[in-house]
Design brief:
Elements (H helix, E strand, L loop, with lengths): L3 H6 L9 H17 L7 H11 L2 E2 L4 E2 L3 E3 L5 E3 L4 E2 L3 E4 L4 E3 L4 E2 L4 E3 L1 E2 L4 H5 L4 E2 L2 E3 L4 E2 L4 E2 L4 E2 L4 E2 L4 E2 L8 E3 L4 E2 L4
Parallel strand pairs: 1-4, 2-5, 3-6, 4-7, 5-8, 6-9, 7-12, 8-13, 9-14, 12-15, 13-16, 14-17, 16-18
Antiparallel strand pairs: 10-11, 18-19
Family: Belongs to the transferase hexapeptide repeat family.
Protein name: Maltose O-acetyltransferase
Keywords: Acyltransferase, Repeat, Transferase
Length: about 180
Amino acid sequence: MRTEKQKMLAGEPYRPGDPELAADARRARAWMVRYNTTLAASPAERRVLLRELFAHVGEGAVVRPPFHCDYGQHISLGEGVFLNFNCVILDVAPVAIGALTQVGPGVQFLTADHPRDPALRRDGVESGLPIVIGTNVWIGGGALILPGVTVGDDAIIGAGAVVTRDVPVGATVVGNPARPRGTA
């Protein structure tokens, strides 16, 4: 029988109140209390803390506090990634952000999803799908990246865009829902 955490990471319906998941979330919250007081610390000092929690942190990666996540341990940052203030990563599924990607303030990566069936929602079931961001991507402030989205290398996500589907390599998308620039 699979654990709730195994179900969660496989993108299957799971129960978030599971003791193992609750313990992981408590650990992340305690880490965020420490991390979010490090604004005056150097990026190198903050990287030491990031490596305590994240799955991978590439050389030169910068995450400006405040920062918020569900678990942290499902987040991977490539070399030279930059996440500006107030980034939120709901990592009930893996989130991989490729090298040299720049993320504006207030961007949210939301892997978490909920059943469309109201009875299942009432029952407290959730699910999630991974998010993959390619290399050298630019994501403008306030953008939302939704569950299951893959953004190709060298793409641009306009400020405030709501990205509901995959973005091809080199594309620029804007709006809600995000569409290639110049389309209605």
